[in-house]
Design goal:
By secondary structure, this protein is mainly β. The chain contains two helices and seven strands, in the order E-E-E-E-H-E-E-H-E.
Length: 125
């Protein structure tokens, strides 16, 4: 079973791009605690309508919960060395408003309750 739930903070503003087929993808780095005093990072990607909402509502520092699956990526670096890493493909993103900070209030007002917890769409992987 491949099911991951992580709560953390965006370490950067989301970045949006499109596949050659026109599928919207939004990605960002998310920091989370992986021990008493250890912070770990993971790349999070979301697609389609969820990607559009994430781009509109999230920003660096936003505290969110992500429910998704891990996907291992493999590539070759510029020196020909094989590399690999994991990304979290979001099935659901939920805003956590513990202190009223960390989310885009203007965007939140524009999209209403839909932005508070939005499920993912079909993921083209």
């Amino acid at each position: 079973m491949n099911h991951v739930i992580i709560t953390g903070n965006l370490g950067e503003d989301p970045k949006e791009f499109y596949t050659p087929d026109g599928v919207s993808i939004t990605s960002f780095q998310m920091a989370f605690r992986s021990g008493k005093d250890k912070t770990s990072w993971i790349k999070v990607s979301c697609y389609n309508k969820q990607a559009e909402l994430a781009m509109k509502c999230l920003h660096k520092g936003a505290r969110i919960g992500v429910n998704g699956v891990l996907d291992q990526q493999k590539w070759t670096d510029d020196h020909g060395n094989p590399k690999s890493g994991f990304r979290l493909i979001a099935n659901q993103i939920e805003f956590i408003k513990t202190d009223g900070r960390g989310f885009n209030k203007e965007a939140d007002n524009d999209v209403g309750d839909e932005a508070m917890a939005f499920p993912g769409n079909d993921v083209p992987i």
